[in-house]
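Field reference: sequence -> structure
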Amino acid sequence: MRGASPNAVAEAVAAGESLSGTRGFAGRLPDGRLVRDVLGRQPIFVERSERPLRDADDWAFSPDDLTNPEPIPAGHTVSPGERSAERVFSVPDPAPAADDREAVADLRRALGESLDSVSSQSVAVAFSGGVDSAVVASALDAPLYVVGFPDSHDVAAARRAARLMGREDDLRVVELDVSDVEQAVADVARATGRTNAMDVQIALPLYLAGERAAADGYDRLAVGQGADELFGGYAKVARAPEDPRVEAETVRGAVREVIRTLPDQLERDLLGLRAAGVEPVAPLLDDRVVRTALRLPGDLLVDSRGERKKAFRLAAREFVPDRVAFREKKAVQYGSLVARELDRLARQAGFKRRMDDHVSQYVASRVETE
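Structure field:
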């Protein structure tokens, strides 16, 4: 079992307690069942097959250890002698908090408790200068790694945020050139098991940050993953129900909708980081934080002016300067300029924009030829 003790997880399964005080888990229960936590924070795979699950050779924590792997769905178990998964956990759906101030205070406490529980031993921080990674960095005596091209938004933002936080000496800039992206494309695609452009664009900067941190002797990389999903960070959530990318009729409903995408995203990020040589640490996905996030009312997710992640930004003022807590940030693939350079590499390799999903075709070609 990874992420918690088998007996503790067994107790949570028996009680149907989805958020039992961990940062995610996966593995074998004492009764032989395989299990994955409700948000899929730890991946686990079984061999894709029509026959029943037999023994230890049928499952693994890494897809590389299986011939034809498929992930166990988040919140499910698979029993010996069975092949289908059974749901044992669901994401809780509590009523929204009635008092906004109390809700922010609860979130502030949960963040503090989660951050205080992270050891600074052999850990580095993936730092983009945005509020998510800055909150994580605030609690750790650790180097801060930002990845991007020299003229990228993320490198500039990380420098500004580090200066405001008094952490200039801790900042380590991993300045990219085109060859860095070109060399990493196939490795990232193989590690994550994905060749689609968006997944590779997102995973690649994180992979390069992890690779540099590992080369510098660090075993773990603290990340800000989960904040956008939990706290209303996406434009499509802010525009619900008008945005066709979400089905929900409310902001709270849209947040729950994007939370359901976490298992797939976290699997990608974790596999990429492990391939880079580091183990991710995600304090913002601690059960204590998740519980408080699920109780936030809609106006603390997106306020009347359209500001996203409102409660998280208010709580973040406890940990970072206001100019960091309330600054907007681009998505990593755009802020680092990795998406731009991947598009350029694809076109230089003959995959023109008029072609269907030309960057994904380029990535697949790199996997085939390397």
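Note: The chain is about 45% helix and 10% strand.
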